Description:
mainly beta; about 50% strand; globular
Amino acid sequence: MTAELVGHWPLAGDTLDVSGKDNHGENRNVDLTGQGVAGQKNGAAVFDGRLSEILVPDSPSLHTGTEDFSIAAHIFTEADIDDPIGDIVCKFDPEHRNGFSLGLKRHSAACTSLSNYRNLHFGIDDGRIDEMWADCGQPGEGLFVMALAVHEGHLYAGTCESAADSAGHVFRYMGNGRWEDLGSPDGANAVMSLAPYQGALYAGTGRLKLLGSSLPPSSNDSEGGGVFRLEGDRWVSCGKMGGERGAYAEYYHDTVHALEVFQGRLYGVALYTQGLFRYEGGCDWTDCGSHGSRLMTLGTFRGDLHVLENGSGVYRFSSGEDWTKWTRMAALPGVTQVYSMAVYEGSMVVGTWPEARVFRWAANGEWIDMGRLGQELEVMGMAVYNSTLYAGTLPLGQVYRYDGNGHWTCTGQLDTTPDVKFRRAWSTAVYDGKLYFGTLPAGRVMSLEAGRSATLDSALAPGWRHLAAVRSAGMLTVYVDGEAVAESSEFAAADYDLRNSQPLRIGCGQHDYFTGRIADLQIYRGALRADEVRGIAG
């Protein structure tokens, strides 16, 4: 093996480095008695997804600079967790956007979709960003890309088309600005939400009132409110959250504004009426009740389902049974609508109206103001991309990058449609190493590449998996169980000097704390060959 081992943490009962480089770790709330890959006692470190991590002090041996390097580890994850799985290993300086990270991403409430679910990301950055957003085309003839989601290696988009003879469609991205039309599930003017669930893609439809975006009303009066599952090339009805009209009139819904997976179940909310619903299979939905206000979207964090309301509140739901178990979190100051949610640096953050501010939920039960995005009015889709938080806005349809200490930098205006009051950078997802946003009223999808990333655009299977991440000759490659599954775009090695003074963090990073077990973490100076990765995976 030509690569030099510079860190090797078996994590079998201790946090010692056995590479000979003395990069020993400091245990912070990690259980070191977990069951290992072969079932051995004290064979893995158990991370709780809340506060546990291992800190390895900075050292010259961990400074990969512009050189090739490799990471390898065994990880164990459960099938259903109510949180992002989080970062496996990270050495990143957020002030200068410099370093590397490896972890699994989950993006809920972005804005209305579960856009990324159990997707593996390996990224590097040295404060580099493309000067321009790339135009990825207009899916169909839609004026609003309401939903984006990554599923089984593809990026999907749900659209709104307002003409009387058109309807909302689902499209699959084929690259180079081309979109494959997968049809309209029910003829309503909008596909408002998307979510991967139990190995399939689900879509929620709606009759969108475009007056909320100061656009002419749609001439398509077809009722929506259905949830559909994609099976091959056809859409299979999964029923309506509120039942058929007249059967449950007080809770009849003609929009499915958001879908989310919680405790292994699919949940949904409407836009114009009240209520939370849980999918029971077939065409059956259970009404989980209403607390008296309209709900905007859904997200999960720390084992709870969170509901963002058309008001100043966020509700926390632990039991999954009824509204009597809901807890209203502290009101957000000066906020009348809560539109989006993300998990950043281990905390829940939300995007709001009417001053386009982002707030972070603190451990003491208070909301901390993270600043206003320019002079914008509304914060919509948010995502953690390559260890940095990004957010879309209204009325200019811009995307901002969080640079810390309340400061946000505008990366560009995505929608420049003239003579309209509101432009939205609404939906967002991370796919193929890039950040994507869907817009209104141009109805286009735009992408940005910051640094370089290799992304597994399918859900990582639960259980024990061996992962390897390799930087080699201007390319990043990710391996799962010894097989290459993703590559980045090419880059010049001299452009990415990853030296920084930050500690190496095991089980935590810029996205979230890790939930699961890690064993036999190794870092090499130099690139492991494919056959060497297979040998280590064993």
